[in-house]
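Quick start: what a row looks like.
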Amino acid sequence: MLSSIQRTERSVREYEEKIDSSVAESAAVSKRKGDGRLIALDAARGLAVLGMYLQHFGSNMTISSIVAGNTTLLFVLCGGISYSIMAQRMMERGSEPIAFRARMIARAVFVDIIGYLLIMLNTPYGIILPAYAALFVLALLLVRRSTRTVVTTAVVLLLFAPPLMLFGMSMLKGACLLSDIAGGPMSALALAPAFVAGMAIGRIDLTRIQTGAWLTASGIVMLVIGKLLGAFVLPDWSVRWEQWLMSVINFSAAPPDQSAIWPLNTEIPLWHMLFATAPHTATTFQTLIGLGMAFIVLGLAILVEQRFAAVLIPFAAVGRVALTMYALQFVIVWILSLFKIDYSMPGLPLHDLVIILLGLLLGWLFSRMPAGPLENLMRRFDGLFSSAKPVTTPVK
């Protein structure tokens, strides 16, 4: 009888030790994910912004062809990761769900305002901030869903968002707010696969070597599949698809009357774009290629952080003030255009390298502040509408 009690007590102690070990491990992971910023994530976001600078100010066509469109998907992917991590941190602190929703809606309003102010500058480049703001609100539907649901949603969006986006580009033309949500390659619907994929990635530990290796390997597979399809399969599919469209759609009909009532004023959706892989087409295949490259960049950043974190610090500085740096490029284009200065700066020695160095310098200068100018304004703005008060448990 005594030996039986001793065995029971020993089993209970062993079980408690396992629980304590599990709790300690979870706390360690939470501490790694919750305290401070993730250098690899900031560096990946910084690389996305620098890629945009190369696209808009660079002169090397090869580099431009690589970064065009893909940097946007990397930027949005990192945004989805940050969104998911922020939601987890607030839940771990016991904040009420309504506080997170209020904070995200407030940030969406702020980002939307900044986006429309940049659009008013009328630069020749598209602005994704209104679509980005819409994603902040739409993603609230997935915050408390299971990881399996989030991953499934990302896959479904990858397959079905492109045709819906093309349909919206026709049906919602001229409706600014609705067009930002689902009206073309720069809409929230077009960028949603990358953002939701980021939300799923944000739920795993981004400080582990295994995570970096998995992301890199997955990205390589996605990139290879997308490139092979683009080189050997899609051209033939595209020809056959366009031939079928020509047989069923009367493209020679008179253009719609823009003064007619909706939907009589809408144009035929650009269905022939479904099999395109060109930058900013937001097709399934272009998104697959762009996400593959984004996964590779993020995965390599995580791996580099494990041994050579110092290498990432300059890029992470840019990533910490990504919103400011993103907006600044359009302001620079606007100012140079006002003074009739060619902002591509032809003839500048080591042109693309100079752009990267200047981008790193600007990022470093802004990162020396407590927060970037726009980041600071955004936090002040959302602070007016949200208060993350911890949930108190009543004493029984």
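That is the whole record. The mean pLDDT is 87. The CA atoms of residues 142 and 150 lie 7 Å apart.
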